[in-house]
Sequence to fold (374 residues):
Amino acid sequence: HSIEQTEISDLPAQDSLNPGSLQLVSKFKNPSSSCSVDVSAMWWERAAAKEPCIITACEDVVSLWKPLDTLQWKKVHTWHFTEVPVLQIVPVPDVYNLICVALGNLEIREIRALLCSSGDESEKQVLLKSGNIKAVLGLTKRRLVSSIGTFCNQQVQIMTFTEDGGSKDEQLLMPPDETILAFAEVQGMQDALLGTTTVNNIVIWNLKTGQLLKKVHIDSYQASVCHRAYSEMGLLFVVLSHPCAKESQAFGSPVFQLLVINPKTAQSVGILLCCLPPGQAGRFLEGDVTGHVAAAVLTSGTVAVWDLLLGHCTALLPPASGQRWSLVKWSGTDSHLLAGQKDGSVFIYRY
Amino acid sequence: CSTADLGPISLNWFEELSSEAPP
Fold:
């Protein structure tokens, strides 16, 4: 702990580390007595107009913030949770009036949909799933995938929402006989889904048929987590994060890795290791990938951004106002980066 | 390692694996 703090204080001023690639656009603070756990951006429809809104989640409250003309944010809805704390926001693309959240203590026990009734705009919540939920992800075409249970007793389900946020139908995917850690969508192939498992396999599903198409073993760091994949020229390019990777003298501290997989032969090769620039230390704490950019909060409290096409770190954001970063998300609605701190502060940067 | 280690590549891998995998 003390070593990490020393490294933060030794960092040069923000401007010299971050030459213009991240510009602060606006910031606000969510006044809450509980710890801030997640932040996200989404489109919310009010009076037939869609607005880019921000969602903040504390352990006991989820809030929706709408933009005002003056680059300020106004809280318009709050949902309260008194029994089970909120763990994360689960954005579902293409749904405009609904937020999904995962609740639990250490592990996810419930997934709930948060919405407003059309008549009086009052906040409502609906229980979607409950049980020993291991992984959940919102997918394009208004779908939500979740895995419940472990090993052989695992159920992988896809739920599809209607445009106004109602749930339409459910479909099962063939479960692998190993516990799923995370799901990742495949850009350029809407009917494919990837999952990483606890024994470092990547599994590939056909979302239309529910078939388990392939299991690919990846020779990488333990407990690697897939964030996103791209389908190009018969190959899958997969972005993994490495929360458990140890720093090595040869590479430094590896945070993300770009891996190429031939799904036909189940062979894979690492093609890019995203390591921290010299002088930086810390491991991956949490992160987000969109398009060809990957952002991570490090255990040092710094946010780092990599351009996966350029192959190097393009921005570093040291702790602001004396506080470490704890959350980082791409807005999804545009090229903005949301960075959050435990006390409820949210900073919005243009990348 | 190099991409040569990946073996023969098929542009239609998704359809081919879907026809081979159990329903």
Observations:
- The mean pLDDT of chain B is 88.
- The longest helix of chain B spans residues 13-20.
- The two ends of chain B are 34 Å apart (CA to CA).
